[in-house]
Amino acid sequence: PVVEEPVDLAAIAANDAKANASEAKEILPPYKKHWKAPKYTANFAHADAGCQWQGIAGQVFDQDGNPISNLIVRVTGEYDGKPVTWLALTGTKDTKAYGPGAFEVYFGDKPVDSTRKLRVQVFSPFFKTLTYNFYFDTFSDCEKNLVIINFKKR
Fold this sequence. Notes:
mainly beta, 4-stranded antiparallel beta sheet, single chain, 12% helix, 6-stranded mixed beta sheet, 10 strands
């Protein structure tokens, strides 16, 4: 006669869950958007332009909170009715107002309202994808003409 050992279905399910979680971590991009982002504020880095300025800025950090330079930030989508693709580099000297490891992308001199028309994504210097492509909104309100989005390594 054949004697079968009882199967522990709970143990199999637990092992499958661990394997799936491990695989999921491997396919996630290495950087994530800060959970409180985006933040909307008045343009403070170009005070002389005041409300005649709109853009996005932020910083990129490693897992220990250290700023990272030389990463590529790409903004794509539609702005003021026109298709756009803008690139920026983190950690350049003209982004000091936002802190080390910062980037800035200038959109235009007239703040406009938009909903899910623009996306931001971070890449390595060799254009390896480091984040998801995140949608964000823009506002014609002068107190919200700067979008702040920070990223951190998982």
